[in-house]
Automatic annotation (TrEMBL):
This is Putative ATPase. It comes from the Bacteria. It comes from Seonamhaeicola aphaedonensis. Residues 5-169 form the NadR/Ttd14 AAA domain.
Length: 177
C-alpha cells in the first residue's frame, strides 16, 4: 500500500493551517495551503485580488498547484501525508461564486483520489479576516456547504473535526486514522 493522502478541508478561517502546522511539528509530512502564495504572487504582478479580478486564472493556478501537491504526496516515502485542501476545493469555490469551469477541472478531481478527508466547520470564535482572507463569516458558512456538496459528489465520506484546542483536534484526526 502506498502513501495515505489525507486532506484537511473547510471554509476560510476554520483552523486548517494551524492543524497542518501542528501535524508538521509532530513530524508528519504536510503540504501547505497554496492560495496565499498564489495571491501574493499575483499582487507582485500588480493584481490586488486575483480571485475577485480573474477567478478562472486564480482557479487554474490553484488547481495546478494542488494537483502537483497530490502527485508529490503520492511519491512521498512517508506512510501518511496531510494536505491543506485538495483539488476538489477549487470546484467548490467556483460553484460558490457561480462560475463555470472546464471539464479538465472535473477530470483532475476524478483522477486525484484522496484516502481520507477531514472537514472543519466554520467556527466564529476563531474566524479572522486578513489581507488574503476577504470573506465574511456568513460567506464562510456558504463555502462550507459548497465544500460538503462537492466532496460528497465525488463519493467522499467527510469526517467532521470537532471544535477544541489544537492538540484535541490533531488528536482526533490521528485517532481517526
Amino acid at each position: 500500500m502506498g502513501t495515505k493522502k489525507v486532506v484537511i478541508t473547510g471554509g476560510p478561517g476554520t483552523g486548517k493551517s494551524t492543524l497542518i502546522n501542528e501535524l508538521r511539528k509532530q513530524g508528519f509530512v504536510c503540504f501547505e495551503e497554496i492560495s496565499r502564495q498564489v495571491i501574493i504572487e499575483a499582487q507582485k504582478e500588480g493584481i490586488d485580488q486575483l480571485f475577485l479580478e480573474n477567478p478562472m486564472l486564480f482557479s487554474e493556478r490553484l488547481l495546478d498547484g494542488r494537483h502537483q501537491q497530490f502527485i508529490e504526496a503520492s511519491i512521498t516515502k512517508s506512510n501518511i501525508v496531510f494536505l491543506d485542501r485538495g483539488v476538489h476545493d477549487v470546484l467548490a469555490y467556483m460553484d460558490f461564486i457561480g462560475d463555470s469551469y472546464p471539464k479538465s477541472f472535473v477530470d483532475i478531481c476524478k483522477t486525484s483520489v484522496y484516502d481520507v478527508t477531514f472537514i472543519l466547520s466554520p467556527w466564529e470564535a476563531i474566524y479572522k479576516k486578513d489581507n488574503e482572507r476577504y470573506e465574511s463569516f456568513e460567506q464562510a458558512l456558504k463555502i462550507h456547504n459548497h465544500l460538503l456538496r462537492t466532496y460528497k459528489s465525488y463519493n467522499y465520506n467527510l469526517i467532521d473535526v470537532p471544535f477544541g484546542t489544537v492538540k484535541e483536534r490533531t488528536g482526533f484526526i490521528l485517532n481517526a486514522l
